[in-house]
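ok here's Glycosyltransferase, seq below lol
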Amino acid sequence: MRILQLINRPQNRGAEIFTCQLSEHLKVLGKEVQVVAVYKGKATLPYEGEIISLNASSTYRFLDLKGWKKLAKIIKSFQPDVVQANAGDTLKYAVFSKFFFGWEAPILFRNASEVGRYLSSTFQKRYNKFLYSNVDHVASVSGASEKDLIGHFPFLTGKTEVIPIGIEKKENLPVKLRPTSAKHIVHVGGFSFEKNHKGLLRIFALLKKKEHHVHLHLVGDGPLKEQIEVEVKKMGLESYVSFYGFVNNPLSFIKAADVLVLPSIIEGLPGVILEAMFCKTPVVAYNVGGISEVVNDKTGILIEKNKEEEFSEAVVKSLSQANNSQINEAYNMVVSQFMNKEIALKFVNSYRKIVPEKE
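and the structure came out like this:
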């Protein structure tokens, strides 16, 4: 079986990293894989093969005949049994390339968020309806993501299933977080509005009133990073907040943390929570998207969105005394249900639903 994996660009974001990890596991299972990026990018992703770029321009993504044609040429050369579009603009390029240039491979879309949160106009709804009407199957990252998708596009009923994100089984030595006398709170995620860094700073300010010896570590990069750096200075928190940008070893930061926090306002199923559970680091998160499918009173602390005072109190509680029962329950859940080796088998079963495997 041949699978063409379409990603937005080589960037250190969950969708692209997971797609490349999945691709490596698919190759171990004997599948042929080609990864294609819509846009150029500089990141080194966990994929040992060549990543072909369409070199498309986001300015013309709604009418990029040249890019659609280039993708069609790659597909006709590689002859995939399935084209998997993985978040971002990948679905646009897959659907329009197939529509205008007539290749036959079925399209599987990996739905990694809650698409309804981004449909703010009639045009967007109609446009996305056209895209999804040309999809053969959808793999949603969580039950919440699947429910949201079917709620907006009921015609997808019977063409979707839930396949969660997975993580890699690897050992990471913790980094040395400073100051050594502080309790360490870690957040890992791109600086985008979905991750709610401003809300996180407000929570941290509340937390400091209750627990003085704490330090916040922000791991990740993104378009809002400079804005958040300015906000930290405005709030007088420079001595208590550290920025690291992108790091190759986020699990090492998570493992060194006393607690991982995720006050996102939009999520599908964030891999960073699973990584924290694998590292046996306590988790405090907002109840958005599919987070409640992995974080509950047995595995972590779940707070309703925008309850910043409650969030800060939950972090204090976690810092004062780690709940070993929750930590062990969360670890066992991840090891048994969310490792990429097993997730890859779920994707293979999905491919077989829309195309018979060639012998």
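fwiw The longest helix spans residues 14-28. kinda neat tbh
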